[in-house]
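Blinded run. Sample ID left blank on purpose so nobody reads anything into the name before looking at the predicted structure. Input follows.
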Amino acid sequence: MEEAPNLSTPASYIFDHDDATASTVTSERLSDELLFITYEIESTVAEIRQAQYQRIALQFPDNLLQDAPRVVRALSGGTRSTYRESTSTSSEEPVSKQVSTSRPRFYILGDTSYGACCVDEIAAEHVDADAVIHYGRACLSPTSRLPIIYVFTKQPLYTPKQLYSDFADIYPDKGQKVILMADVTYQYLLHDIVTSLQGQGYSNLFETEVQHAPSSLLPNRTVPEDVRVETHTLGQWDLFHISEPPQSLLLALSSRVASIHIYPTEAESLFASERTSPVISTRMLSRRYALLTSVSTVSVFGILINTLSLKNYLHIVEHVKARIIAAGKKSYTFVVGKINAAKIANFSEIGAWIIIGCWESSLIDSKDFWKPIVTPFELELALQKDDERLWTGQWSSDFQQVLDSPLRSCSQDQRSTSPKPENQESALDGELDTEPESLPPEFDLRSGRYISHSRPMHSSGVGKGKPGPATASTALSKRHKSDVVLMAGNSPGAEFLQSKRTWKGLGSDFEIAYENPGTAIEEGRSGIARGYTHYGTSSAV
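Blinded prediction complete.
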């Protein structure tokens, strides 16, 4: 190479956004009255007054960011009146009381570190915020640092009268059990819709309500009373969902209810052939299960942290690490912010990625990525043995369910119950002297190819009667070019960097060719600009 490579990010990634979490784009300018209704200004101001927040961060998704200045002015006007009333009542109040009634300050978070559905507590802490007001769609995952005010915004529903006729065509039996569910931006319409349908004679309708429970049977929604008593009865109910749900929610719901019908909310999608189309997610679920058969033979995993705000995200990271180590595999942890194919393609030694994020944005289609991306729930299935892995049709994207009821493989149970040697040092010395027993061969069930290094963290000291990975060897081996590495395959990343990676960093493949490399080095100028010292003499500039 004659010049260093250009490593700029392609322009196509500048305006990337998550289609799964994007809501209806608001292109028309809202009137002042509609702005107050859509963004729930009065209730938000009342909550700010009650809690006496002083520094408030406002988080908008990209499609609502155009209304952010007007929302700030509306909130400032409501809180300014409170400030004037509190400062004019009495001048003899204590200092602590006067500070608590000072005028609040609002900060607009122009960009989110991760998904728009998650609360960006990291960005809010940059301005030392007391609370965050999250606007638009939300995954309602529990946070760990700041109090959150959720404003879902009230989006209009195009042709609501058509919904009733379509509902009657889908469910002619007015005694059929139907659960009505809507996106949080259309939740305010659900009560009137259910009341109108009940007036038409439908007797077994259930209106869901929003709750902060991603791990529930209907994520973040209430369930019928009989389902609370016996959870398996949820399969007797049909689901009518208003607006297009994200894929993660769609997979979870399809494995729990009898059938799903979706009523689209965008004006351009309201065609007779598309309206209330039944959802067939069996093929999507089959693709996810088929993906796990190839992930099961991966030797090196990458743990991709896609959130720093969710509660218990560190617990699931440690849980995933422990499961990977118990399977004799290696893992590396990465924090890259918003995920795209260009970022994670830099780590070619990673065979598969485990994404740690909210339940709504954890499902990523791997067709645009070089390596597959799976959830912690899918990793639990992939690390099981081939004769233990069962396809039950159930699917979940909430990692809290993995922490509450982890799946344990036989190898992990054997490792925890196997007796430890009385003298560990002597046992380790004996292992190094004995001939290791070969591990059983593994094959990729999709391609049929033999996988030779599926468990790189199994030490060479593993022999008969010693299940599970043995204690890692600390002996060093000196290779060519004076490189020192650990034995027993304890650093697959370093091994890959040395043997397989063709490009090893910025400037590694850029060499400067000098015309006369044997020229002696001479001492140049030194000092400051007003009086350099050049070859032992001083000169003024």
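Unblinding after everyone has recorded impressions. The mean pLDDT is 76.
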